[in-house]
Specification:
Blueprint (H helix, E strand, L loop, with lengths): L1 E5 L5 H4 L7 E4 L7 E4 L15 E4 L9 H6 L3 E3 L6 H16 L2 H9 L8 H8 L12 E5 L3 H12 L3 E5 L5 H6 L5 E2 L3 H7 L2 E4 L13 H6 L4 E5 L8 H10 L2 E6 L4 H4 L4 E3 L8 H21 L22 E8 L4 H11 L4 E9 L2 E8 L5 H8 L4 E8 L1
Parallel strand pairs: 1-2, 1-3, 3-4, 4-5, 6-7, 6-9, 7-8, 9-10, 10-11, 11-12
Antiparallel strand pairs: 13-15, 13-16, 14-15
Helix pairs in contact: 3-6
């Protein structure tokens, strides 16, 4: 029986994918094998020794202490792309409301309440104060062309915008998904100097924190409209407000509310709505659950933020053992592991080794059950982080 602890409310449709006869799922549970969460902060959480994996039902993982997890050999999963359409739609909405001041217009019209039959004429007379430009024909700069950024770029192009995308780390899949109409920028400066609208779609890391700051704002076109639905720390809010005051920035749409931002009428703050659709929450939960199941039941790793992608398509051998071994990526580790198995007369039927930076991960199938003595020897190899047997 596998035990799963949930730290947030998770879509019931996703949790239903855990077979009840194999999994126990609860928000409070002793010695869980894995943790499933959304936005709960794990940085101050004391982790039970039983934890083997953590799955974030969403793309961002800054609420998870990944270095500490990696040290313990805990695999951290996220769900890239599962909420991409929800965010894409909100970005398109943000483009429109940053241009056409419909939010302010709606509030102004509501203030006419009580004027009775005068309302139509008053509304007609007052509409000129809410004029805004169309987005068609304007240039959109997309910083980050992952699952969300690529979808945004394609949709904006379909709406008649000239789209420039910047991503020095673009994946092959994302590149294939991009419309031919999307131009590739070689440098971030190309986006900053040419775009009428800029939208950010990169993860928040030590390298990207404060990506949009005073220096980069100075390089932008006058009257630029800026959208940040990715992570709050990517933008230095004080610098954006200074840019608004100077006339450099015409409007800022942020999904991350802040006291200072709320005081400025050229800022539209949303309450972190990016993935807040029932469809996105269900998609993220389903993907996270499937990834946890694949890892716990077969050792497969897909969409991990700290471990390499690694899986064997064959099922766990009947009557045999699948060994899942995490170790430091240093010479002769595989040789030492296979030597221990050979000395125990365990024939290897299937094996894969993948690495990611300083970390490596092996899946090894053997035809027989592996004794506790062999497991102790494997765990005793210098550089091995953990060894998990899965019985067939």
């Amino acid at each position: 029986m596998y035990k799963i602890q949930t730290l947030n409310k998770i879509s019931a449709d996703g949790l239903a994918l855990f077979p009840r006869d194999v999994y126990e799922v609860a928000s409070e549970i002793l010695n869980p094998d894995a943790i499933l969460l959304r936005s709960a902060d794990m940085h101050s959480m004391e982790l039970p020794e039983s934890i083997k994996a953590v799955a974030r039902a969403g793309a961002g993982t800054n609420n998870i202490p990944i270095p500490a997890m990696t040290e313990k050999g805990i695999v951290v999963f996220n769900t890239p792309g599962a909420n991409a359409n929800a965010v894409r739609e909100l970005v398109i909405l943000s483009l429109l409301i940053s241009s056409r001041p419909v939010v302010a217009a709606s509030e102004w019209v509501k203030a006419l309440s009580g004027k009775g039959s005068e309302i139509p004429e008053l509304a007609e007379k007052g509409k000129s104060q809410f004029v805004g430009p169309e987005i068609r024909g304007k240039t959109l700069g997309v910083i980050g062309l992952g699952a969300i950024g690529a979808m945004v770029a394609n949709s904006a192009s379909d709406l008649g915008m000239n789209v420039i995308g910047y991503d020095p780390y673009i994946s092959v899949d994302a590149a294939w998904s991009l419309s031919r109409a999307v131009r590739k920028a070689e440098t971030l400066d190309t986006i900053l100097t040419q775009a009428d609208y800029i939208t950010i779609h990169v993860p928040q890391t030590p390298e990207t924190k404060g990506l949009i700051n005073a220096d980069r704002i100075k390089a932008m076109k006058n009257g630029v409209r800026l959208i940040n639905l990715a992570r709050g720390g990517l933008v230095v809010n004080a610098d954006v407000l200074e840019g608004i005051n100077s006339g450099k920035i015409a409007c800022f749409v942020s999904d991350f509310a802040d006291e200072d931002l709320l005081k400025n009428d050229k800022v539209i703050c949303l309450p972190h709505l990016g993935a807040s659709t029932p469809e996105a929450e269900e998609n993220c939960a389903r993907m996270a659950v499937n990834q946890l199941r694949a890892f716990l039941e077969t050792g497969a790793i897909v969409n991990s933020v700290n471990f390499p992608k690694c899986k064997i398509d064959d099922p766990v051998p009947v009557g045999g053992t699948r060994l899942c071994i995490a170790h430091k990526n240093i010479p002769n580790m595989v040789g030492q592991i296979t030597t221990v198995l050979a000395e125990a007369s365990l024939n290897i039927e299937g094996m894969i080794n993948q690495n990611r930076g300083d970390l490596a991960y092996n899946i090894i199938d053997v035809a027989r059950q592996v004794s506790d003595d062999v497991l102790v020897k494997l765990r005793g190899i210098s550089g091995v982080i953990n060894v998990r047997p899965i019985a067939g």
